[in-house]
Model the fold of this input.
Amino acid sequence: MMLERRSVGDRGLVVSAIGLGTMGMTGAYGPADEAESIATIKEALDLGVTMFDTADVYGPFANESLLGRALAGRRDDAVVATKFGGAELADDGTVLGGANGRPEYVRASVERSLRHLGTDRIDLYYQHRVDPRVPVEETFGALGELVTAGKIRYLGISEARPETIRRAHGAAPLSAVETEYSLFSRDVETNGVLATVRELGIGFVAYAPLGRGFLTGAVRSEGVLAEADLRRGFPRFDDANLRANLALLERVERIAAERGTDSGRLALGWALGQGRDVVAIPGTRRRSHLAANVDGGATPLDDATLRALREAVAPDEVAGTRTSPRDVGIER
Done:
């Protein structure tokens, strides 16, 4: 398997087409095994994965610390992407409030993430959620200063509207926009986000390209999810919506069977097939799933398969909204 390298934006950032989302390694989807998580990160490096995605709010802070420990001795082999401002956090991890984009909080968050990651620079730094109380120009003005200071290499924004992306990019050039994108979540195709990043020369990072695991076929009822699994709060994972969506998944599975593969590999191939400016960051906590993800990213799909998948799942057929009602920081 040879993972393709892709440019993320037009400012020089290059990463593996498939990255690794680490959120689940610190309890987001139920109990996690730290030793297995670290082994998974190390094996990802060995398989050619270079992009590793985390955030200060995952844990909080525990996820950044775990990634930092796993990359010890191999930091230069990795592109570390982390995020700030999804929630306002105290230094002890207490959640003090919602999204925070104030310049003073930005500066404090960078220093805190550098400490937890055990590094001297953050390769890609995202505003995790837009703070409606603070003009995005103020937030990215502060971030631009931190790029100049060498603490950050490249900038990104997550789950933002096209007009917010434009304003942030005008204040300090963006390399990446990160938003959920999969066969089951395609609103970026119609809400202007993909068109905007392509016009501005910004890369697109697709999180949850496996539909938070649903497109692998591993979640066929709400009952398989651990009590602490955050997916229990997502409408698509309640039993009624899951039952409706299984009919769509079965269409994908039939296409996969005809091609001698599985639905997860096809879903990743589909995401990467939407353009060379798209990078996908599926998450996994286990080495047993990692190789399949890398294989999906290393196996291009032909036009006929891409077309068949798009026709098999119409966005308006998917039951349930993609986000939790609690995720109020997403700009819609």
